[in-house]
Structure formats: C-alpha cells, structure tokens
Write the structure tokens for this entry.
Amino acid sequence: MANQRLQSDVVVVGAGPAGIAAACMAAENGRKVSVVDNSPWLGGQIWRGATAHSAHGLAGHWIDRLKKSGVSVMSNATAFAAPSSHVLLAETPDGVLELSWKKLILATGARERFLPFPGWTLPGVMGPGGLYAMVKSGWPIARKRVVVAGSGPLLLAAADGLKQAGASVGLLAEQADWGQVLRFGMGLWRYPGKLLQGAGMKARLLGVPYRCGRWPVKVEGTARVERVTLTDGSRSWTEDCDYLACGFHLVPNVELPCLLGCAIANGFVRVSEFHLTSVPEVFCAGEPTGIGGADSALVEGQVAGLAAAEAWDRARSFFSRRAAWQRFQASLHQAFALRPELRQLAAPDTFVCRCEDVRLADLKRCDSLRSARLHTRCGMGSCQGRTCGPAVQFLFGWEEDSVRPPLFPVRLASLTDVSSPLDKHRLETDKSSRT
Ligand SMILES: Cc1cc2nc3c(=O)[nH]c(=O)nc-3n(C[C@H](O)[C@H](O)[C@H](O)COP(=O)(O)OP(=O)(O)OC[C@H]3O[C@@H](n4cnc5c(N)ncnc54)[C@H](O)[C@@H]3O)c2cc1C
C-alpha cells in the first residue's frame, strides 16, 4: 500500500523549464496539477536552487508564476514505477506516493554523455555540467586548474561558470571540427538571445583557449587526476590539471517514457505537434523530445501544458516559435555530432561500466546490451545503465531493449509496498519480450 495518494487532472514529472512551463499552463487553464521532481529544488538542471526571490530573469519569472498558479509541487519525489494505467509511483523521504492522473506530462530532461577512455574513472574527472552544478552548490574550485573537454555548448557554459567561481581554466577542447562549430555559430543570428549569451560567455572566457577538433585520450594520476593527454588526431600533448570536466553533449532521459510504452524515434520520444506521445493522454516536452536548451524546453512545455488542458488554439499559437527551436535542435545535433575516432579511445582494460567494473575486453565477447547484461552485469549497477548505456550505444550500436521498474534505486520498503503491481508489470514485460 502506498503511504499517500494524490489525484490530479495533470501530473508533471520534472520541474525543469519544460515541466514548470507545462504545469503553469495547465493550472492557469483550470486544471488541478501536481509536479514531482527528484531533486530538492525547482528549476531542473539549469535553474537548480533558484527561488522566486533569489532568481532573476526567466528563472525568477517562471518560478514565481508556478508558485502563484496553485500547482502542488513535490520535491525529492522520484517517479520509479507505473504499476497500472493512469497511476505513477514516486518515492519520497516519507514513503511512496501514488499519483493518479488524467493527463501525464513527462519533462524528465537530459543528462551528460560520458565516453570511456583510459583514466576516465579517476577522481577529479567529472561532467562539465556536474562539476558546475557542484560548484553552484558550494564546492570549492577557486585556484584549481581545470581542463574542460568533450562536446556541446554546455562546455562553454560550464567553463564560464567555473572561471567566474575562481577556477583557472587552462583549455576548452571541443571534439567537433572548427568548420562545424563556425557554421553553428554563424546560424545563431536567428536566435538573438543565444547569440548574446554566446558572445557574453566568449568575452568572459577571454584568455581561455577554445580549441576545436581536440579531444582527451588519457588521464593520469596516482590517487586522482593530475594530467590529461589530448590529441588533434595527429599530435598529442599533456596538460596538468586538478579537474578534467569532460562530457560529450547530452542524452535524453527517456527511461520513464519507455516504461510507459511511448514510442522512441532516433533516441528521442516521438511526439505529435501537441506533444502527445504514442500513448494516449501522455505528453512529453523538453530534452526527451530533442536537445535544444532551456528556451526550447520552455516553449515545448507551454504547448504540452496547454494541450493537456485542451486549450488547443493557445497551444497552436506557440507552433511557429516551437518550429524555430526545433531547427535550433537540429543544428545543435549536426554541429556537435561525435567523431568516429572517439570509438577507439578505450583500451581493452578500460572500464566501460564503472558501477560493475566491466572492461571493454569483457564487452567485446557480447553482441547486444542484453547479452552484455547477462554475461558481464554491464548496466546493472546503481546508475542502472544511465552512464554506460549511451557509451555502449555509441561504441557498439547496442540499443536499450527493455526498461523495468524500479527506474531508480529505491528503498526496499518502497518495493515491498508495491510488490504485487510491480511483479505483474515484470511478468507482462517478460511475456511481451518473448513474443
Ligand atoms: C548536469 C547538467 C548541467 C547543466 N547545466 C547547464 C547550465 O549551466 N547552463 C545551461 O544553459 N544549460 C545547462 N544544462 C542544460 C539544461 O539543463 C537544459 O537545456 C534545460 O534545463 C532543459 O530543460 P528540461 O526542463 O527539458 O530538463 P531539466 O532541466 O533537466 O529538468 C528535468 C527534471 O526532471 C527531473 N526528473 C527526471 N526524471 C525524474 C523522475 N523519474 N522522477 C522525478 N523527477 C525526475 C530531473 O531531476 C530534473 O530536475 C545542463 C544539463 C545537465 C545535464
């Protein structure tokens, strides 16, 4: 039995820009709305920790609007199972919350993509977004030497934030070629806000070399990272550092949509023009439908929220803006496509699944994610494949073929509370995967 039950017209999972915008729109159009988010704050990845009082600009506007809209917000609530139609279970510090919904909006965001290379599991090697997030929460970075590497615009945002927090950023190494990045930059005139944001970051990063067509190949250190070796494909060199902030763009969090049976196309949740997924009454907005940043997520969230409230004409009024952001998503995808050389970085003894200590050589004996799970436990550790899944997808082309509850590690009590519906789901999944 769940400890608490809540019935809503609309449940939103995720309180980032997409989820906040969706919740506001649905509530302002007369719906009873609940939002759950697994972090202790509102704002998702980009506005984390912001409050209506502390935040300025867009974040302040939307968080204030959410507070005034009458939406019930449950922070520290992780949606981990969908035991029956129109029901979602979320684990909270007080137990399991059973959420009944008429319409569901999934706004679960994205995470950083990590690729394995020798030394990538040493302490001090982190995702740029992750390191910046820790610094925003008070992690001391002043005077530390940081190399930022990998791919995507998050490298610039993180380097900018780290430098402002007092880090000594020695190098920003983008794996994409200069030509691709230049073409992307030249297309930004269509998005004046982004152009200004990019120009501001470049100005603040004056003196930090931004090098394209460079990527890390090896990290060394005794107890933690001390130096990183990078290459441009023909020449290699070493940079001393206290931190390597390395991530290869973002991958969408599609586990919950998959659990609910939403169709996926090219790695993203497939949605209609109103952000309806292939499952009736389930909508999806923000990064799970395409990586495009906070502005894109906000517009998509508004369309999804209005559609969930059946305010179709108002939803349509956002279509042209949304189309512009979809073009931006496509140009991001093209500009920061991963180069094939990155598939060769891991050595036979490099860990690919760091939770279960599975090395590249162990995986070479497998031919699918399922056989890798069965024979090596790859993807079966505490991150449940969130880190190694996108890496093996890139290295071997193995696609995720099943998602099972619980989506996140939960307390035993949460599982026993709901054991019968979960067992039923498991049996149904097993049966359908055999047919
Ligand atoms: C680590 C990281 C740091 C970033 N930092 C920056 C930055 O500094 N500047 C910048 O411009 N962009 C940054 N980005 C990109 C930015 O987050 C996105 O472009 C933007 O926030 C997308 O908004 P969204 O609403 O789609 O998703 P998000 O903002 O990611 O919001 C999704 C929310 O859903 C929650 N969630 C997911 N699954 C569940 C579940 N099952 N149960 C409950 N809650 C769930 C997540 O905790 C999250 O709070 C960062 C991305 C990452 C991954």
The pocket of flavin-adenine dinucleotide is lined by residues 13-19, 36-39, 44-46, 78-79, 107-112, 129-130, 132-133, 154, 157, 250, 253, 256, 286-287, 293-294, 297, 407 (CB under 6 Å). The longest strand covers residues 95-106. The chain has a mean pLDDT of 93.
